Amino acid sequence: MIGTRRAPAGVLVVAAAVIAAGAACGSAPPTSEASAASRPPTSGSSPPTTRPPAPTSPPPPAAPSTTSTTSTSSPSPPPFAASVRAVTASELPYTWRPGCPVSPAQLRMLSLSFWGFDGRPHTGTMVVNASVVPAAEAVFRTLYDERFPIREMVPEDAYRGDDNAAAAADDTSGFNCRYAVAPGPPHWSVHAYGEAIDVNDVQNPYVDGTTVIPPAGSAYLDRADYRPGMAVPGGQLVDAFAAVGWYWGGRWTATPDYQHFSATGG
């Protein structure tokens, strides 16, 4: 009969020892990482969680601007103003008297806006014939709009009717019952009718040879050296009067009267 082959005794002993050691440690056959990853979670375990983003604070409000806005525009000047009223003999104690070519009833007191040499608006007064009131208002409205400077504007009664004193004060005025400053027999000036106006006497003197009225006007004999307040051909002052049909005394070549403007040409 054929017998069964036995393993050597030493081999059997080693194998038995290995098996016994494994059972004692309770080890399980190894598993791969892929198997563990695919295994569903056991009961009672929580799914992985994602941490929400940390809340962000709103940006702080912008600080208020500390830059101040300052207006650089200057206030508008007052508009030109003119008013007219009757005048009485008692208001003309030095410039009117009985025998003058016009009566106080034919004259008017004008109140007019003008720009001074100080660059500011002012209000002045003058006496003129009632017939030239519209023209006078138009002239001084134009001069005001163009900011042509005038030194002062008061009736010549403020100087007791003294034409030379008024001229020395650089006054701008109208009516004065006096004779013309001219050669020949005495005759009434156009001022005696209230139909003439003198403007800025110092800047626009009367010249008769070496006689200059007022004397301070000698500084303005060079008419080509234009300065504010002067009357020159094509200038603001001459053009304003020409626009209403008035004549300029500066056109008189023998005895130029640069300050003088009249409705009649005299």
DSSP strand tally: 8
Largest sheet: 3 strands, antiparallel
Number of helices, counting only DSSP H or I runs of 4 residues or more: 5
Q: How far is the first residue's CA from the last residue's CA? A: 180 Å
The percent range for strand residues is 5-15%
Overall mean confidence score, pLDDT: 83
Evaluate the radius of gyration. 56 Å
Secondary structural class:
alpha+beta
For the biggest β-sheet, the strand order reads 1-2-3
Low-confidence stretches: 1-49
Element order, helices and strands?
HHEEEHHEEEHEE
The backbone outline, from C-alpha atoms, is globular
- Measured as a percent range, the helix fraction is 10-25%
What labels describe this entry?
266 residues; disordered N terminus; 5 helices; 8 strands; single chain; three-stranded antiparallel beta sheet
Topology of this structure?
Blueprint: H1 9-25, H2 33-38, E1 82-86, E2 107-115, E3 121-129, H3 133-145, H4 163-168, E4 196-198, E5 206-208, E6 211-213, H5 236-242, E7 247-248, E8 260-262
Antiparallel strand pairs: 1-2, 2-3, 4-8, 5-6, 7-8
